[in-house]
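Re: your question about B3 DNA binding domain

S., sorry for the slow reply, the queue was backed up all week. Below is exactly what I fed in.
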Amino acid sequence: MNYNDPLDPAMIITKVLTKSDVVGNVVLPKAEVMSVLTRMNVNDQDLENGVEVQVHDLLEDDLYTVTLKLSGIDKPKFYFGSGWSTMKHSLDLEEGHVLKLYWNQWENKFVVLNFQYSLLPLMIPV
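Result:
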């Protein structure tokens, strides 16, 4: 394992939060979510029903459970539903802030990258 290896950019979701993301559920960038889904063991039916995923904030050592959902057939949207409100308040996220998450496929959870992540080892096996 090498802590100096860069994170796989295909496993990173980045979203500049809008007012509607902060007031309601955060809509995630489709292409980035679809890239991450290649390493998750889920299908469209699972996503339509909602899949609980873990989100780990390494700085505070907090673990959040949020529901990743897919809505719409013609224009599919991915979003965090249940659990998002608790997570956004705990992370003090506001409109204009950037939410950056890394899918750690080895631990089957997202890791919050809203900090200079190269300073902390993520303990991701190579």
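Helices lie at 19-23, 30-37, 44-49, 84-90. Confidence is low (pLDDT under 50) at residues 116-122.

Happy to talk it through on Thursday.
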